[in-house]
């Protein structure tokens, strides 16, 4: 009888030890999992905030770029108007040639104006390429207008 009570007690003790050890490992795993989830939530929130800050910075940069380009486009329009008044004093053959050349430059200016108005600042990589290409085109047009000479051969 003492052996059977002792055996039952040992078996009960082993069962209790085993069951509590499994519970502890599970609790440790769930604690580390909760900690990992918490860290990933923090990282996700940080990434969202960085994205929003980047987007605001990009929007601010785009608005600044847009204003600068609109000033350049207006300057081009003024140069075109001045050149038109100079051309109006010419004879028909010369006048037609100058007007045709000036019309091409005016169309380029209008095209740039439309591109700027229609551009949506959504992706950073596209923004950089758009900015470089647009700057090149508007600088080229400005140079063409400065180089446009109206010779008065009366």
Q: What keyword list fits this structure?
A:
0% strand; mainly alpha; 154 residues
C-alpha Rg (nearest Å): 38 Å
Overall 3D shape: rod-shaped
Write down the oligomeric state: single chain
Q: How many domains make up the coordinates?
A: 1
Task: Summarize the helix and strand pattern as letters.
Answer: HHH
Q: How many H/I helical runs?
A: 3
Portion in helices: over 70%
List unreliable stretches of 5+ residues: none
* First-residue to last-residue Cα separation: 137 Å
Average pLDDT level: 80
Largest sheet properties: none
Structural class: mainly alpha
Count every beta strand, where a strand is a DSSP E run of 2 or more residues.
0
What fraction of the residues are assigned to beta strands by DSSP?
under 5%
Report on the structure:
The chain has 154 residues and is mainly α. The chain has one domain. Helix content is 89%, strand content 0%. The protein has helices at residues 2-87, 92-118, 124-147. Helix 1 packs antiparallel against helix 2 (92-118), helix 1 (2-87) runs parallel beside helix 3 (124-147) and helix 2 runs antiparallel to helix 3. The longest helix is centred in the first third of the chain and has 86 residues, at 2-87. The chain is rod-shaped. The protein starts with a helix and ends in a 7-residue tail after the last helix. 5% of the residues are buried. The mean pLDDT is 80.
């Amino acid at each position: 009888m003492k052996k059977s009570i002792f055996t039952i007690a040992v078996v009960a003790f082993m069962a209790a030890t085993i069951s509590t050890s499994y519970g502890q490992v599970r609790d440790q795993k769930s604690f580390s999992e909760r900690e990992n989830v918490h860290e990933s939530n923090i990282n996700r929130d940080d990434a969202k905030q960085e994205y929003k800050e980047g987007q605001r910075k990009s929007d601010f940069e785009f608005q600044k770029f847009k204003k600068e380009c609109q000033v350049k486009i207006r300057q081009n329009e003024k140069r075109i108007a001045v050149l038109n008044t100079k051309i109006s004093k010419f004879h028909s053959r010369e006048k037609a040639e100058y007007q045709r050349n000036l019309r091409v430059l005016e169309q380029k200016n209008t095209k740039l104006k439309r591109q700027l108005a229609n551009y949506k600042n959504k992706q950073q990589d596209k923004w950089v390429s758009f900015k470089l290409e647009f700057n090149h085109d508007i600088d080229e047009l400005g140079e063409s207008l400065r180089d446009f000479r109206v010779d008065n051969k009366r």
